[in-house]
From TrEMBL:
The keyword Cytoplasm does not apply. The chain crosses the membrane at residues 74-94, 106-127, 294-318. It comes from the Bacteria. This is Exopolysaccharide biosynthesis polyprenyl glycosylphosphotransferase.
Length: 478
């Protein structure tokens, strides 16, 4: 399951746009010395879901009460209302885009209304055949509710866009100075976006800056307070500023990742602001993190109980055949560039620490014993990483972690490699179940890993785990 067993395929393109490689942070490092002063957090403008939900509720009630067949069954009107609201909430239709537009969500709204009315007609036909809804009633109900709902939503969106244009929120742009200034200038030319950049956060100034360049945490804090910053636009890999972004999120700022040029891979949940592809950053997404962590603890704990006798057998055989030191410990880079100690069964012994940190070992090394080669070939030497998952250093599913030396090297060579570290690393991942192990392209692994992060769901994790379990019977090596 690891990527370190063979030398990676050469190739890949040099990094562009001034993106820096992932920063490897000390495990005890604080959030970069950046924290929002107590008692002075920003009052961020939050978009309430109530107006849109109220519009949908009124549309359902009005359409239901207007039809005689439905009026005789008040509970059916209530069911109509609840189902539509639940379907719209499930589709995130109460969390509109930064610049909401009725035409963008029109198909989704009308489709859910039609599905709800069809379900209601099916219930009537099954339990009250004598009062089954006619095709005329079904069409009128769908049309009436769709018209009322769309008219109300259009009004709500128009009022919000007007408010954004009249009172744009202050924002900071984080990234290389030249790129950040260019993105900031574009947003200033389009005030209807509702975002007004007031400063750039960069390592150093270019000397031709139109907006002030903030290079220290203290300057960022000062700008945050004085300008009432509500949003942060990130134009570099988020992991580069992980500690600062976490602190800004805790301060109440909305975080947006902005692609200053063409995206290198498809991104779910993209929006367009000032002509740039943008997506909200998931830092602080507690419910998703809780669900993923719950799955990790439940599955890793259960597996450790089941395979603990097998682990003891492996340890005993390794001790008898290869001597002491059956557990191999190695520093790897995890989420936000933080190092941790990865555990494996020792299948071979490097010459020294330098070789262990900088050499890509080969799974079929001749000095391996038959038992060690068996462990590597079947990936059973990875089972100890269940302890890393249980302790919270890793997840069951995520991008595979790598050593600091190779993280720095690949981050400079392969586009998107540093961005993999915005999610917890894992024992297996989307790249691995697509055969990207061994002597395969690092660039392809980056693309699959980033696609996994952008489209993350609990169901996707479960599918990857099932596919990994099925692949364990194939001796493809680690």
């Amino acid at each position: 399951m690891t990527a370190e067993s063979t030398v990676p395929s050469p190739g890949g393109q040099p990094r562009e746009y001034g993106f820096s490689p992932v920063s490897v942070m000390s495990s005890r490092e604080s959030d970069g010395g950046f924290s929002f002063p107590a008692g002075r957090r920003n009052a961020v403008r939050r978009v309430s879901w109530l107006p849109l939900a109220a519009v949908d509720a009124v549309a359902a009630l009005t359409a239901g009460q207007a039809l005689t067949e439905i009026q005789r069954h008040p509970l059916s009107v209530v069911a109509l209302l609840l189902v539509v609201v639940l379907l719209n909430a499930r589709a995130s239709l109460y969390r509109p885009a930064p610049l909401p537009a009725l035409l963008d969500e029109l198909p989704a709204v009308c489709a859910r209304i039609a599905v709800t009315w069809c379900a209601l007609a099916a219930v009537f036909a099954a339990f009250a055949p004598d009062e089954a809804l006619t095709a005329r009633t079904l069409a009128l109900g769908c049309a009436a509710q769709s018209v009322i709902s769309c008219a109300g939503r259009g009004t709500v969106h128009w009022r919000r866009r007007r408010a954004l244009a009249q009172h744009p929120g202050a924002a900071l742009v984080i990234g290389p100075a030249g790129t950040a200034q260019r993105v900031a200038a574009a947003f200033l030319r389009h005030p209807n976006c509702g975002v007004r950049p007031v400063g750039v956060v960069a390592d150093q100034s270019t000397g031709l800056d139109k907006l002030p360049v903030l290079t220290t945490g203290e300057e960022v804090q000062r700008a945050l307070i004085q300008n009432g910053v509500r949003a942060v636009l990130v134009v570099e890999p988020p992991v580069r500023r992980g500690p600062m972004l976490r602190a800004l999120a805790l301060a109440g700022c909305e975080l947006w990742e902005v692609d200053p040029d063409s995206p290198s891979y498809d991104r779910a949940g993209r929006h367009t602001l000032a002509g740039f592809a943008c997506r909200p950053l998931s830092i602080g997404a507690r419910r998703a993190a809780f669900g993923k962590r719950f799955l990790d603890v439940a599955v890793s704990g259960a597996l450790l109980l089941l395979v603990s006798p097998l682990l003891l057998v492996f340890a005993a055989v390794l001790r008898l055949t290869d001597g002491p030191g059956v557990v191999f410990r190695q520093e790897r880079i995890g989420k936000d560039g933080r190092p941790f100690t990865l555990l494996k069964f020792r299948t071979h012994r490097p010459v020294d620490a330098h070789e262990a940190a900088t050499r890509w070992s080969v799974a079929g090394e001749q000095e391996m014993s038959r038992f060690c080669a068996f462990l590597r070939r079947t990936s059973l030497d990875e089972l100890l990483q269940l302890l890393n998952v249980l302790w919270g250093d890793m997840s069951l599913v995520g991008p595979r972690p790598e050593r600091p030396y190779f993280v720095a090297k690949f981050s400079q060579t392969y586009p998107g490699y540093a961005a993999r570290h915005r999610m917890q690393t894992g024992i297996t991942g989307l790249a691995q179940v697509h055969g990207l192990r061994g002597d395969t392209s690092i660039e392809d692994r980056c693309r699959f890993d980033n696609a996994y992060i952008d489209n993350w769901s609990m169901w996707q994790d479960i599918c990857i785990l099932l596919r990994t379990a099925a692949a364990l019977v194939r001796p493809t090596g680690s």
